[in-house]
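Objective 1b: paired records.
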Amino acid sequence: MNGSAVSNHAGFVSRAVAYLIDALLVTAGAIGVALGTVLVASAVGGPVRDIADRAVPLALAVLPAVLAAYNWFFWGLAGRTPGMALLGIRVVTVRGGRASWFASLVRAVVLAYLPIGALWSLVDRRGQALHDKLARTMVVAAARPPAVATDQPGRSSTAVSPVRQPQPS
């Protein structure tokens, strides 16, 4: 991508909905782990129950760190989280390239611990939030794969058609 291709920044609503989807996924996983811990501790009883009673609130307190790790992993690996993929948006550098693992980490930590900074994207001309500014990234609408011709006239597909082999006679 070049500088002009990066002008297609994602809107605040798309970004917010993607963030909520991802936050719900992480929270559901954390609640599942917490409930599992409580159930096992209840079955075992005794001192294990006391440990679980102290561990569950601690686990919920580190939820922002879990969200940061989740975002860092997906942004570093694919440039988008599952929530972003559902909404057709992705993270790129301000020059339009793939965000590095370090930029993804900076972005993830700032977003997890200072989510109010996301509101900056409402007033920024390039739609960048605070975490984007610090990591030198931005969120853009993902490019759709080009359509390729199919065997049927007037129809196209994003999947590549298999090559037909001649049938032996």
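Objective 1b, second protein:
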Amino acid sequence: MDHMDPKSMQPGETPGLLAKANTGSMKGRFKLENKKYYRKNVELFLLLDKIKLWPARNGILHGILEVEKQGNSAVITTHCGKTFRIYNSRNSRAARWLRNKWVVEPCKDCKVPQWKLDKYSKTYFSQHYGSDLQSKEKQ
């Protein structure tokens, strides 16, 4: 005789999130999110290379087309044709705005895709946990 778990719908199935997701009535309710964790004080150039988004001072989020590094500074070209000269600072306004997600809306001219905005919304920054993006710089 099979063991019947009182919290499960199927005999021998373990209770919990996966057991509830496999039942017919709860199908599609529980989705596992792909959360990305990065260190809080990662260098700005490495972060921009990874997420390809730039927060402007007026609260608009631009999509990055190209990052041309020139020593400790870089020239960013967005999809809408604007260029910015930035410096590699972990405490800069742009780095703080990206970490704290203080942007208002995406740029209409850059046409940032919805999947990129969803991926950015699932990105978290932590002091002691996550990727520091240093391995990308060493290659």
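Residues 39-138 form one domain. The first helix runs from residue 17 to 21.
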